[in-house]
Each structure stands twice: as C-alpha cells, then as structure tokens.
Amino acid sequence: MSTTLQRPPADVSAKPAASDRSKAENRLGLKLVAPAVIMMLLVTAWPMIQALYLSLFRYRLTAPDDREFIGIDNYVTVLTDSLFWRDTWNTILIMVVTVAVELVIGFAFAMVMHRIIFARGLMRTSILIPYGIITVVSAFAWQFAFSLNNGFVNAWFNWLPWIAEDTNWFGDHWHAMFAIMVSEIWKTTPFMALLLLAGLSQVSEDMLEAAQVDGATWWQRLWKVILPNMRAAIMVAVLFRALDAYRIFDNIYIMTRGAQDTESISFLTYRQVIEQMQLGLGSALSVVLFLSVLLLAWLIVKLFRVDLASARGEG
C-alpha cells in the first residue's frame, strides 16, 4: 500500500478576512473621493478639452475671423523652437534645485518640530509663517531685498566673496535665477517640513530605541531606520513640491517679468496667450505643459517605488 505525503491544511481564514476588509476600505474610499473627483473633472475637463481643440488652429484674438485649422503644426512649432527648450531647462533647473534644498532644510525643520518639548506649538507656527504669505507678496518682498538701490542682501552679505555692495541681482541670468530660487525656497520650505513632519511622526520610537540599544549611531539610525520608514511621506512631499515648482509663475512674473532669460514654461504660455493673444499656440503650450506634469508625476512615483498600501499598514 503506497503512501503519499500529506500537506497540512492551510490556514486561510485570516487572509480572506484581511482581504475583504481591504476591499471594503477601498470601496469606501472610492465612494468618499468620487464627489470630489467628479467635481474636479467638471471644472478641469472642459478647459483641457477646449485647449486641446484650440491648439489645432492658427487662432489669434486680434483676428478672430481668420481662424485656420492647421492640425499639429502648433505642436511642431513649440517642440522645434529653441525658446521652448530654454524655458524648459529653466523650469527643470528651478524645480530640481528648489526641491532638493527644501527637502534638506524641511527635514531639519521637521526634526526640530518633532523633538522640541517646550513651546512646540509656537515653534511650529513660527516655521509655517512664510507658507501662509501670499506668493505675490513674498515675491515683492524678495525683489525689494535683492534690489541694487535699497535692498539689504548686498549690505548684509557683502562679506561673502561672490557678493559685493554693487551686485546687480537682476542684471544677468544666473544672479536673477538665484534670486528667484531663494524666494521660492523661503516660501515653500515650511510646506515641505509639514509633510515630512507627518511622516516623521509615523516612525516607531520602539524601532529607534532598539537600534540605539544595538549600538547604532545617530547617522545609522537616520539612514537605516528613519528615512526608510519615511519613504512614502518623502515621495508625497517631493511629488507635491516638484509639480508645484514645475509650474512656477508668480515669482518670475513679479521679480523679473522673464527678463535675463528667466522665463519658465508657464510664463511662456502666459506671454503667448495673454500678451500676444495667440490662443492656438498658447493652447498647444498648455497641453504640452499638462502632459509634462503628468510625465513628471509618473517618473517620481516610479523612482520612489513606494507601495502606499503597504506603507498604510495593509499586509
């Protein structure tokens, strides 16, 4: 009589329960966000469809009767124009530099706000003040700060080798770009700190204490415990700020008006639509900007490779 090995019965009771609970939570989440998604689609879908439609025409408001269907010629014009690629480079440079600096400073602020014991509410409120200021107002303030005639930057920092009392911050490309990026970093670093603080509060103190008991230094705890457990929060913070920085407009409009080759893609779109009244070309730029934002978001999500479900605690 032959015998065969018998496998023990699998305990499948826990997994379906967890799976059913996860599905129920997902269904509830879809129901909760559905009204907001529908409203956003109603508000944004029509302008995007209209922009896509207008981008297929040679159309200027100064000659509305001369509208002519030209297919994808506007897109060809945009993608083959050196001005578009120069402004794209400016936009990417501003995005990369500002987000990188904000990530470092914002994380330091988050650590301070997380660890401080006395006057915690006052400290958090003080750090968040710049983010509460309207962007146009902060841009005017920094334009004044970098002013050659009555700004304080040259007077306060002329001890640095690259800053003199007569430094004209808006007289050439790189100085102007630096001033724009400083104003952007000052304004939005608190937002980055707030998002990172939310992620930092999710790091288990037990894990940090266990690592310290095992002899891990502060740097080892940072790189091996804190940052890996904050990956989801870091991704959200970088994603939000990168998309916002990629669409930068206010600072450039107030501080330089695009002078010294400091235009961004958003500012170029503004000039085509509002100043030159070229609705067809401007609409093509708007569509390209929209698609590039989607591509940027996809790249950031793929780069971090974060499973938000597992980060939320679903196994």
Explain what this protein looks like in three dimensions:
This protein is mainly alpha-helical. It contains 14 helices and 2 strands, in the order H-E-E-H-H-H-H-H-H-H-H-H-H-H-H-H. Strand 1 and strand 2 form a beta hairpin.
- Give the spatial strand order of the biggest sheet: 1-2
Q: How many angstroms separate the termini?
A: 44 Å
Unreliable spans are 1-8
> If you compute it from the alpha carbons, what radius of gyration comes out, rounded to the nearest whole angstrom?
26 Å
Number of helices: 14
Based on helices, strands and strand pairing, what is the structural class? Answer: mainly alpha
Largest pleated sheet: 2 strands, antiparallel
| Percent of residues in helices | over 70%
Order of H and E elements:
HEEHHHHHHHHHHHHH
Sheet-strand content, in percent, reads under 5%
Task: Note the overall shape.
Answer: globular
Kindly state the number of beta strands: 2
Please, what is the average pLDDT? 86
Main location: membrane
Keywords: Cell membrane, Membrane, Transmembrane, Transmembrane helix, Transport
Family: Belongs to the binding-protein-dependent transport system permease family.
Subcellular location: Cell membrane
